[in-house]
Amino acid sequence: xxxxxxxxxxxxxxxxxxxxxxxxxxxxxxxxxxxxxxxxxxxxxxxxxxxxxxxxxxxxxxxxxxxxxxxxxxxxxxxxxxxxxxxxxxxxxxxxxxxxxxxxxxxxxxxxxxxxxxxxxxxxxxxxxxxxxxxxxxx
Length: 139
Fold this sequence. Notes:
The chain is an alpha/beta fold. The chain has a single domain (5-54, 72-131), classed as 2,3-Dihydroxybiphenyl 1,2-Dioxygenase, domain 1 (Roll), CATH 3.10.180. The chain has helices at 14-24, 53-57, 82-94, and strands spanning 5-11, 27-34, 37-43, 46-52, 74-78, 104-105, 109-115, 121-127. A hairpin with a 5-residue loop joins β7 and β8 (121-127). α1 runs antiparallel to α3. The chain starts with a strand and ends in a 12-residue tail after the last strand.
């Protein structure tokens, strides 16, 4: 079996969150979804589980963070073009997301940031490694 990543997010409104992530380009896998949680598919190996607070608590060993007032993590999604970055973020804004920072252009990478209704932060970016500065080390 290929290695996979599942990002589990506590959300207040499962359906509203599903609509937001669908606008970003995720698809729903109904096989692993119910009223309290939706499995949203980014690729064959990357999934975001949108879980009601009650369902999330059944897996959690700590209180749920208030991601509207504190950053719990940054999640990044790569796109195939700068135009796709703009399209994805604009779609997310139309469904209730907010853009907490301005567009960033690093020369080899362009990035926009969007938060969902619960404050989960996503960096949507396009990277052209042929434009990466020669001799600059990556971390």
